[in-house]
Each structure stands twice: as C-alpha cells, then as structure tokens.
Amino acid sequence: MKPRPPAAWRFTERGTHTGAEGAHVLSVALAGEIDADAVPPIKLRLEELLHDAPAPTHLVLDASRVEFMQSAGVGYLILVHRQLAARGGSLSLVHPRTQLRSTLQILGVLPLFDIYVDEPSALADLGVA
After folding, report:
1. Which one, out of 26, 53, 65, 88, has a CA that is 20 to 30 A from the CA of 2?
2. For the chain, where are the alpha helices, taking DSSP H only?
C-alpha cells in the first residue's frame, strides 16, 4: 500500500475566552486545503472542543490561511453555525480569502457568518477584553 502524503491542512486551537454576559468563546484557526478527507478529523476535534464544559456559545474561526474549501467543509461550517445558533451563539470567520468568501457567496450562505478582518476585532465584538 502506498503511504498517504502528509495532510495539506492544519487545525490550531487558539484558546477559550469569556465574553460579554458570560458567553464562552472558542477561537481556532484552519489552514491549507480543506477537502473531504480533511473534514472528519477537523470535525472530531472541533466537536470535542464544542462540547467541553463550559460549552462555547461562539466560535471564532481564523480562515485567513485556508487556500480552498470543498463542499464538505462548507457543509460542516453550516452545521456548526446551526448548532451554535441553537445555543444563542454564532460562528465568526476571520479574514476568509477571496476564494472561500466567493464560494460562500455563490452558495448563498455568506450572510450566516459574521466576517472580521482580524481575530481581535471578532473577540472585541463578542465582549472579550
């Protein structure tokens, strides 16, 4: 069997924060090529983080280094958005590249996400000092 090449993506947990009115905010970053093979391990790790006590109500996802995202990745972002919205929370994207932003726009899902130019702006908007 031919060995698989190393993953062309990276998931980084940046931390958890307490925002306005006690909201719990999780900050993560994705980088690289988010294809169908990348989604299951990303989903596994993110689900662990989203269910840790206290469960985050808001997710700030730095997408500034995502080169492209296939439909499986976009579908997962929509699912996470819905889960967080059901808790009264949100999914914020930090500086998504033009390709990702265009994909989300074409699919009609860009309005689901709050878009920020940088992580400090997103955290400040959620009341994280």
Report:
1. 65
2. 39-51, 71-86, 98-106, 119-125
Rounded Cα–Cα distance for residues 44 and 19 (Å) = 25
pLDDT in tens, 62-85: 999 999 999 999 999 999 999 999
Nearest to 33 by CA among 72, 61, 59: 72
Please tell me the distance from the alpha carbon of residue 59 to that of residue 50, in angstroms, as a whole number.
9
pTM: 0.92
SS3 content of the chain, % helix, strand, coil (to 5): 40, 30, 30
Look at phi and psi of residue 9 and say left if phi exceeds 0, alpha if psi is from -120 to 50, else beta.
beta
